[in-house]
Design goal:
The complex is a heterodimer of chains A (91) and B (575). Chain A has one domain: HPr-like (Histidine-containing Protein, Chain: A). In chain A, 37% of the residues lie in helices and 21% in strands. Chain A contains three helices and four strands; from the N terminus they run E-H-E-E-H-E-H. Chain A has a four-stranded antiparallel beta sheet with strand order 1-4-2-3, covered by helices on one side. Chain A is globular. Chain A starts with a strand and ends in a 6-residue tail after the last helix. By secondary structure, chain B is an alpha/beta fold. Chain B is built from 22 helices and 16 strands. An eight-stranded mixed beta sheet of chain B has the order 1-8-7-3-4-5-6-2. An eight-stranded parallel beta barrel of chain B has the order 9-10-11-12-13-14-15-16, surrounded by four helices. The longest helix of chain B has 26 residues. Classes of the chains: A alpha+beta (91), B alpha/beta (575). Chains A and B meet through helix 1, strand 3 and helix 2 of A and helix 3, helix 4, helix 5 and helix 6 of B. Chain B: Pfam families: PEP-utilisers_N, PEP-utilizers, PEP-utilizers_C. Chain B: It catalyses: L-histidyl-[protein] + phosphoenolpyruvate = N(pros)-phospho-L-histidyl-[protein] + pyruvate.
Chain lengths: 91, 575
Amino acid sequence: MIERTVSIGSANGLHARPAKLFAQAASGAGIPVTIQKDGGKAVNAASILGVISLGIEHGDTVTVTADGSGDDAEQVLDTLTELLATDHDNA
Amino acid sequence: MPSATATSATTTQGQAPEITTLTGVGIGTGAAVGPVAFMAPALPEPKDVASTRSVDEETARVRTSVAVVSQELDARGQKAGGAAQEVLEAQAMMAEDPALTELIDQKIVAGGTAERAVFEAFSSFRAQLEALGGYLAERAADLDDVSQRVIADLSGVAAPGVPERDEPFILIARDLAPADTAVLDLDRVLALVTTDGGPTSHTAILAREKSIVAIVGTQTSEGLADGDVVVVDAATGQVTLNPDAALIEATTERIRARAAQAELPAEPGRLADGTPLPLLANLGDVAGAAPAVARGAEGVGLFRTEFLFLDSTTAPTVADQRASYTALLEAFPGKKVVVRLLDAGADKPLPFLNDAHEENPAMGLRGLRALRASENLLRDQLTALAEADAATSADLWVMAPMVSTVEETVYFVTIAAEYGIRTAGVMVEVPSAALLADRILPHAAFASIGTNDLTQYTLAADRQLGSVAAFQSPWHPAVLRLIQEVARAGESTGKPVGVCGEAAADPLLAIVLAGLGVTSLSMSPAALADVRASLLTVTLDEARTIAESALAADEAADAKTAALAAATRITTKEN
């Protein structure tokens, strides 16, 4: 089990398109991934509804946890945290 | 289409006489021909009863329906492209969301039907989104749409909402909610026909704004079947069922002629004898400026500033406001731009202005009354406007909303003068201001009549209330008489009197307003072409005659009929 903490880059937070891109990537990861805001409840990162319902805004700090180890899990977290740090609303 | 006529003739044989037309209130003067499609009604809430199927069967049903809906949404997204595709793909993902699926499965295992499990699972996520408020609360509607689609598929009925067709269609609905019209692809809708709703309904406002052919309030859609070809004529307010070839051809020709006319370069508004009547645009944000100019707006007759204030918990800064006003004024160099100060109140509350609950917000602390109670807001707005005015070459006019007395007029123009606002005027929306216009106008530089509120207050009929919709017509002779009162006061004091309500967008009523002595008309930019063409058909004297015939009527409907008869008499005599 490994985790990373990252600050949200998208100007409008993690809803709409950024949430969709993130949930899509998480569901394609092949290993269970969760996301939590400020140490709150962890939700399935592959669930767009779960992700949206966290009400994550621009600049919020979130923790992404992958249920795995080794290079594959690191790779998954690299991809996901990069998605979270990117501003998709002004891309 | 001829076969449809034959079928309906045989099926109605020996029954009540066949309905041949439906009549409602036409919006604008356009026409349309095409097949009708019904807006499917919302589904009832699935009953909370124990399932008679096994858990496996119910689960399998949900899996199938969810997959069908998800694929359907993805397919629609691919067809739509752009921003719509993003929304539809997100909806497709919601349908197959793992957290939702888990919740649905739990409810089925607990003995529920697939329909009820889907309904409850979606509702629980909906509640979570709503609780977050703002943008996320709006996404709750997306979730509702997916939920209804899955339940419709499970129940084997049509999905509620705007139907999907390969060919453009005439949409028949009870009434359209804002959520429906937001997803309405206007390129696919030839016309809107609603059985409910009046001339101030959301459908009517949308139709005027977007220049869509529409008839509202037909009471019934009896006699219409999905796919029937009909003729919709907004000028007469009639939907013709089973139209013959001659009517279809004449209407098609009319649509072609109207489209050709809209292509012509826009000229300044004037009557047939050359009397100028400037045609201005109503705008709600800065983005609307360029399209308004393209449609030939000679300036802005009503710039609503609410967009700067809504959705914010604190008032915008002077610098923020100045940037928006400057962008607006820059779009109209050398032209008149009338800006209305913040028109908020208990019906559209702003936390920093007035959040006290009022039993009767239309008559509460709103418009200038609310600004006066928070005078710093009023002063900030005037500061920003004066600064934007100094930086640009547009002719800035500023008006206060909902002024009711002479004293309020003096209060406002005095403060405006402190900031160097050269042209400060008042909105006339309250009957008291219309009745005392001759005493108000000596103080104000101009008056602008807001016919929507003036009608609401004159007839004591709440604009938001469908049950009193019949009272809400600006054609009512009492409203026309008040407008005349203000126009006369304008004439005697030498002050301009404009109209900036929905009334100005009605091509026939525009003639009446000209006849009453109004000196400019401001409307949704989409209405400019029709009003411009209509004004060119009469001279000022003829407009006065038409206005007199409307004033002489007892009822709104009679006033309109009388004006139409007088206008027809005048224009056909000339031809």
